[in-house]
Amino acid sequence: MKVGVIGSGGREHALCFSLKSSDKIKQIYCFPGNAGTSLIAKNIDININDFEKIKDFIIKNNINFVIVGPEKPLVDGIVDYLEKFNIKVFGPNKIASQLEGSKIFTKKICEKYKIPTAKFGIFSDTNTALSFLKNCNFPIVIKADGLAAGKGVYISENYNEASKAVDEIFNGKFGNAENLLIEEFLNGEEMSFFIISDGKSYKMFGTAQDHKRVFEGDKGKNTGGMGAYSPSRLETNDLNFKIINRIIEPTLKGLQELNCQYRGFLYAGLMIVNGDPFLIEYNVRMGDPECQTLLPKLKTDFSIVIDKCIQRKLHELDIEWHNDKSICIVLCSQGYPDTYTNHVEIDLKKLNLNKNQFIFHAGTKIVKNKILSNGGRVLNIVTRSNDFKSARQNSLKILEEINWKNGFYRKDIGYKVIQE
Ligand code: AMP
Ligand code: GLY
Question: What is the pTM of this model?
Answer without folding.
Answer: 0.95
